[in-house]
């Protein structure tokens, strides 16, 4: 059974279909990423009859909107947005949105004598031999007048040749562009697979891309919801863009959706900067209890999850749930309180969180629990905090996580978040995990390892000091300046039987310390620099850090999960030191988790 049909459409018909929303382009209010050179090249290819690739569309189910408006059955353009936008700019003379969200014109010039295309420049504009803006020809009320004006300004040109070339240029309007229209009964996974196979670059089109395209087809409301997601994500990274959006996108600025994200213009936090795919995932969990972005597309298409049949009457309610979820997600109070919970668990820097999905699920969980009036705010924060750390330690949201997400959401709805979290902890965070699996997981050279980063988070959350520091905390070094220090210096190990980075760069050989202490230790073996610390305690004269009491030294070593035998450590006992420290680090993480 055919899953698609291939048709040809003239450029002018294609642009008319876009104008009348028969083909929906969700990207029109996003910054145009092509430069003018690519637009010029596209026009040159059409002029010469070269292929410009197929557009790929997917049938969208229509629905009755509020106010009597009807979202017609549209073809959603899922590949070819930039080409269509370029044609709208060069042929129709319409403006595109630049990086500042400002409407601007891209003018392509044509020389009918040399048959060259070029981006319009002041020099070209002053040269009468050039047609400064080809859209003037395509939109001219009278081509006779156009020809007459050109020859009047250029009396010395070869009239027959120029007439032929301008006529050839005008025929771009009738150039045929291929359209691959995918059937409306295909699921998102099948559409994605077809897209990948057709696309010459082999670039995957994610389910989140489909969801964003689908959202934008629901009339003005859908376009604004799409923009709400886009602008929220953009402002989270670039707050300065707020003025550009407010000034240049009047349609969105006059809607009710700008106010909820206005707070981002003053935002300087970068711990959690969601991309649109993240927002789609969170909204799916929050609004639909669904883990897959493709499931959201099905919901917004009116597809009944039980019968798998489309029921258009379901569509308005689906968009209501989506809007409600999005407004919860972008709310300043919710977002900032969630970040405080994550920071209270010790994760205070973006580099400490290797799993965006762990943040996504935790945020969705936090927002869902806010609707649970039977749960106190303190219990809500405790559950979210422990869930997040549990997921970091167990990689619960990696791999094929979407099914796990849906299972977790269902179980939370059935038995409650507190009880379900306890079940997971009892089944996965057993004594065997803490005493065997976690120490083994810490046998790695990756400082981005979630296990090592959780150890650092534990240090931050419990307020401990850096290695051999008297008063500077691990938290302050994360926020200001600190070094990942080799407890047993690399140079010493390399010279004493451990030349491989897999040995000397074990995370069990790392500790966060002040830069000045790191420099003072340099390549000295532990026995040497620890002897200096002991001498410092004895004499009171500071030479390495500021510790001047024996008990304070031992307390500092315990805070950093460093064995006391560091004082006598040599290369021959290095492997035993690593094994001992991994167990101590696991113990620190376990005590920290128990206190969350």
Structural summary, described in words:
The protein is of the alpha+beta class. The chain folds into three domains: 4-198, no CATH class; 221-426, no CATH class; 439-595, no CATH class. It is built from 29 helices and 13 strands. The strands form five sheets. It has a five-stranded mixed beta sheet with strand order 1-11-3-6-2, with helices on both faces. It has a two-stranded antiparallel sheet with strand order 4-5. A hairpin with a 5-residue loop joins β7 and β8 (103-104). α19 packs across α20, α21 crosses α29 and α22 (450-461) packs across α29 (574-595). The radius of gyration is 31 Å and the shape is elongated. The model has no long low-confidence stretch (mean pLDDT 89).
Distance between the termini: 56 Å
Biggest pleated-sheet summary: 5 strands, mixed
Number of strands: 13
Summarize the amount of helix as a percent range.
Answer: 40-55%
Write down the overall geometry.
elongated
CA radius of gyration is: 31 Å
- Provide the structure class: alpha+beta
Percent in strands:
5-15%
What topology, given as strand order, has the largest sheet? Answer: 1-11-3-6-2
Which quaternary structure do these chains form? single chain
User: How many DSSP H or I helices?
Assistant: 29
Mean pLDDT: 89
Low-pLDDT residue spans: none
How many separate structural domains? 3
Summarize this structure briefly.
The chain is an alpha+beta fold and 596 residues long.
